[in-house]
Amino acid sequence: MKKAIFGGTFDPIHVGHLHIAYEALYNLNLDKVIFMPSGNPPHKMDRVVTAAKLRYKMVEAAIQKEPLFELSDYEINNSSVSYTYKTMEQFHYLEPETDWYFLVGVDSLMDLKKWKNVHIILQHCKLAVFSRPGYANEDIIEMKKFIEETYKQEIIYLEMPILDISSTVIKKKMTLNRQVDYLLPCGVQEIINNYHIYK
């Protein structure tokens, strides 16, 4: 089996996230993509993040019609800080025969040397990096080479069409009472409205 974990705050999940998941699914020939809403991400401790259970509900609604997508509550049920190396240790322990991948944006690749216990992450999975706006291709290739040489592990670069959508922009549009339905997967807007999120 080949499975990828797609972590993120998903605050809210949007069509750009689904685009990335499908591109990874097809390009890596995956059996499953597991969406992993973050619990207490160390790099976002200074930001206000929507309650984990509501972010979980939004992801659940967004992926409910795709049988190759799954949802995990592992990190949101963990009260400690959500470190990727701990997540990958746990999933590798539960399914040691699975070929694990971890999906991250190129911004994470650029900051990877600041992550905790990178060597443990790369022991338990292959890192698959997707494009994001604002990064020069030569800078990405240079950092990819640096990480590979430093940790002796291959980094997969998924070159895919970029959908320039962000959760931050969506929330800003909502504060201006602008329409965002076209940026959100089916069912997500209804949850936002029902629970008065982002008001």
From TrEMBL:
Keyword match NAD: yes
Keywords per UniProt: ATP-binding, NAD, Nucleotide-binding, Nucleotidyltransferase, Pyridine nucleotide biosynthesis, Transferase
Statement: the UniProt record of this protein carries the keyword Nucleotidyltransferase: yes
PANTHER family per UniProt: NICOTINATE-NUCLEOTIDE ADENYLYLTRANSFERASE-RELATED (PTHR39321), PHOSPHOPANTETHEINE ADENYLYLTRANSFERASE (PTHR39321:SF3)
Function recorded in the entry: Catalyzes the reversible adenylation of nicotinate mononucleotide (NaMN) to nicotinic acid adenine dinucleotide (NaAD).
EC number, as in UniProt: 2.7.7.18
Gene designation per UniProt: nadD
Family: Belongs to the NadD family.
Gene3D superfamilies referenced in this protein's UniProt entry, alphabetically: HUPs
Protein name: Probable nicotinate-nucleotide adenylyltransferase
Pathway field: Cofactor biosynthesis; NAD(+) biosynthesis; deamido-NAD(+) from nicotinate D-ribonucleotide: step 1/1
Organism: Clostridium punense
Record HAMAP family: NaMN_adenylyltr
Catalyzed chemical reaction(s): nicotinate beta-D-ribonucleotide + ATP + H(+) = deamido-NAD(+) + diphosphate
Organism superkingdom: Bacteria
InterPro entries: Cyt_trans-like, NadD/NMNAT, Rossmann-like_a/b/a_fold
Positions of the Cytidyltransferase-like domain: 5-172
Gene Ontology MF terms: nicotinate-nucleotide adenylyltransferase activity
